[in-house]
Write a structure and sequence with these properties.
Strand order of the largest sheet of chain B: 6-7-8-3-9-10
Oligomer: heterodimer
Radius of gyration of chain B: 18 Å
Number of helices of chain A: 15
CATH architecture of chain B: 3-Layer(aba) Sandwich
Largest interface: A-B, 24 and 27 residues
Helix content of chain B: 25-40%
Order of helices and strands of chain A: HHEHEEHEHEHEEEHHEHEHHHHHH
Shape of chain A: elongated
Radius of gyration of chain A: 30 Å
Shape of chain B: globular
Strand content of chain B: 25-35%
Strand order of the largest sheet of chain A: 2-3-8-5-7-6
Distance between the termini of chain A: 27 Å
Number of domains of chain A: 2
Number of strands of chain B: 10
Number of strands of chain A: 10
CATH class of chain B: Alpha Beta
CATH topology of chain B: Rossmann fold
Largest sheet of chain B: 6 strands, mixed
Strand content of chain A: 5-15%
Number of domains of chain B: 1
Structural class of chain A: alpha+beta
Chain lengths: 437, 236
């Protein structure tokens, strides 16, 4: 009977085109508005690496000003000093670990006709690729020996490899970054964790970097920094070496801890390290070392924008208003079908059969509203993109999950809106209607 | 086929009670053709609604084809109505958006027949009413007489055996009405039990038995045909 009911719904929608259009529009506008906001929140809040988010930890050490906490709530700085990052890397107390920092490098193409261009980069340790499950198209990351030997190796993004090598396997090829040659050891496949959890200090929804190079080159090649740098006291002396030795924080640090025992041991290690440093006159603040897994880290760093969170209930209320309009329109439509309902009752339809029939019609309106709603959602996201530009480029993507959610929400909402009108329609007294025709 | 004993129906509002049927008793045998006559407000429509299981009653008993219908739930009443009763209305009551075949198909759908069986039945009843070539026409493309034939075809499609006709020729001109009546007579001759409400004494006289209602009660039972009281204009 479902096919029959769908056919009747299609006929009914066609025969009452204006009213049907109004209902579809009401549902679509409500769904479009709601899903635009929900999509932004969903992408902001979703787990960027669900298979490992519970074993990857951002590391915090409170090396900040003894007289003034880094944040009002007393939480420690979100980045480390170079000194501490190197010390934690040297200790290798976690199963895997990497210090990292954003950088920016000038790519010098081999082709003399091509102009140099700037590429975003990330300096990290060899563990970076294994920790974050980066997919490789060609080759692999470098190994720990390359870190130690200050090898000038590079992993390219797929996009960069397409640009420089036309998408061919470039492993073993050399490229020039800044004034130095680097040997390509790997090419990543498309990789865009959202949010870009491993460094949310600048743009949590930025694109992943174009090139990845060993962190050890930061000091040896004096790579430029691309990210936040915060200092609670002036740098002692001039030059790059002085900066590296300063109390400025500018390095993100991640550790892979496979279970609670490893996490406890690592926290104990951090406390011991800080206590050692205290004896050297650093870390004047009370012990306040923390490790947060990926999702905790997204909360700590307030990745979900408070305005977007606030807009969520507003958009749901708007959807509710649209659905209330739909209820009114459905009520008018179904009660207008009283003669047909009475006739169907006379011909043997039970109230249950009619209830299902008209609920299916509500659902069909929901499907149409959902499809149009998805288009409106897409337009809404493009509107946000037009307003905020590249800042939200990766935040306004409509994936299959959200498209499905939009259509399902539209169907469920429409059917919910159709419950009362359908119930009223099914309780029409057939005798009076049949006589009055 | 139909057995009502002391059936009463009272419509109540806050200020008034209306006795639509008062202790009405009527027996209709299988294969009978009964005409129901009476002035407006006499209870004819209420009787048809109760007989057709579209309405419940307050007192008395009603057995349809040997089954007591009091206390049946909505599903059972719907199923019984679908299987046992065919309705023919004065205003045809076709669904304007559906073509002729789909209109006739409606009760068969609720009966749960397979597609092939439904098609066979639709084709058969359309041939019976002489509209075999109009399957895909919409009701608005047919004349009044043709629409009533479609309504009759719809009533017959499920082989209900019991037809309730409410002024079946009330909206037709006399020549068309005669054709429709001839069709109803033929259905009766083929074994159907028919109760027909009508104001037309000539039509009522074609029934085997005439029942006159007044004030919700049966006041006159008469054998139909020539020479009856109704034929002579004495009762209505």
């Amino acid at each position: 009977m479902l096919g029959y009911y769908v056919r009747l719904a299609a006929i009914s929608i066609r025969e009452n085109a204006v009213m049907s259009l109004l209902m579809i529009t009401a549902v679509a506008v409500g769904i479009g508005t709601c899903m635009t906001i929900v999509t932004v929140n969903y992408i902001m809040a979703k787990d960027p690496i669900p298979q490992k988010s519970e074993v990857l930890y951002a590391v915090q050490l409170d090396s900040w000003n003894p007289n003034d906490a880094f944040r009002d709530d007393g939480s420690p700085p979100d980045q480390l000093t170079y000194t501490d990052a190197l010390a934690l890397m040297d200790a290798r107390s976690a199963f895997r670990q990497t210090a990292m920092v954003g950088t920016s490098l000038i790519v010098q193409p081999d082709d003399p006709d091509s102009k140099p261009f700037q590429a975003s980069g990330r300096a990290a340790y060899a563990d970076f690729f294994a920790m974050f499950d980066t997919p490789f198209l060609f080759g692999s990351g470098w190994d720990a020996d390359a870190d130690r030997r200050l090898e000038q190796v590079v992993v390219l993004s797929r996009e960069m490899n397409d640009r420089l090598f036309g998408g061919e396997n470039s492993v073993g090829e050399n490229i020039t970054l800044g004034s130095y040659d680097y040997r390509v050891v790997g090419v990543l496949d498309t990789w865009q964790p959202m949010p870009k959890f491993y460094d949310v200090t600048t743009g949590p929804f930025d694109k992943t970097e174009d090139v990845f190079v060993p962190f050890s080159l930061v000091a040896s090649l004096q790579l430029p920094r691309n990210g936040n740098t915060n200092c609670w006291k002036p740098v002692d002396g001039d030059g790059y070496e002085a900066f590296l030795a300063s109390e400025c924080i500018w390095i993100q640090f991640w550790a892979e801890l496979r279970n609670d025992a490893e996490k406890r041991e690592y926290l104990a290690f951090l406390d011991n390290y800080v206590n050692d440093q205290k004896s050297l006159g650093r870390f004047a603040r009370p012990l306040n070392n923390r490790v947060n897994d990926v999702n905790e880290w997204m909360d700590v760093m307030r990745v979900v924008d408070s305005n977007a969170t606030m807009m969520l209930p507003v958009s749901i209320m708007f959807l509710t208003v649209c659905l209330l309009n739909t209820i009114g329109l459905l009520l008018a439509k179904f009660l207008g079908k009283a003669p047909e309902i009475a006739l169907r009752r006379a011909l043997g339809a039970s109230k249950r059969a009619l209830f299902v029939q008209y609920l299916v019609e509500s659902g069909c309106i929901g499907v149409a509203g959902g499809v149009v709603g998805v288009v409106l959602t897409w337009l809404g996201l493009r509107g946000i993109e037009a307003l905020f530009g590249d800042l939200v480029e990766n935040l306004v993507q409509l994936d299959l999950v959200m498209v499905t959610a939009a259509v399902v929400l539209a169907i469920v909402s429409s059917m919910a809106a159709g419950l009362y009108p359908t119930w009223r329609a099914c309780n029409i007294e057939p005798a009076a209607q049949l006589k009055s025709q | 086929m139909l057995s009502m004993k002391n059936v009463s129906r009272i419509y109540r509002t806050d200020v008034v009670q209306t006795h639509a049927l008062r202790n009405l008793s009527l027996e209709v045998e299988a294969g009978e053709f009964v005409a129901l006559v009476g002035p407006s407000g006499s209870g004819k429509t209420t009787f048809l609604n109760i007989a057709g299981l579209l309405e419940t009653f307050d007192d008395g008993s009603y057995q349809l084809d040997g089954r007591d219908v009091a206390g049946l739930n909505d599903n059972d009443r719907s199923r019984l109505r679908n299987e046992k009763i065919g309705f023919i209305f004065q205003s045809f009551n076709l669904i304007p958006e559906l073509n002729i075949a789909d209109n006739i198909d409606v009760p068969l759908r609720y009966r749960g027949f397979a597609a092939r069986e439904r098609k066979r039945r639709v084709d058969r009843v359309l041939e019976v009413v002489g509209l075999g070539g109009r399957k895909k026409h919409l009701p608005s493309q047919l004349s009044g007489g043709q629409q009533q034939r479609v309504a009759i075809a719809r009533a017959l499609a499920g082989d209900p055996g019991f037809l309730l006709a409410d002024e079946p020729t009330g909206n037709l001109d006399s020549s068309t009405a005669a054709g429709v009546m001839e069709l109803i007579n033929e259905i009766h001759r083929n074994g159907a039990t028919i109760i027909m409400v009508t104001h037309d004494l000539e039509l009522a006289a074609r029934a085997e038995r005439i029942v006159r209602l007044s004030d919700g009660q049966v006041v006159l039972l008469d054998e139909g045909g020539e020479g009856s009281e109704l034929e002579n204009g004495a009762a209505v």
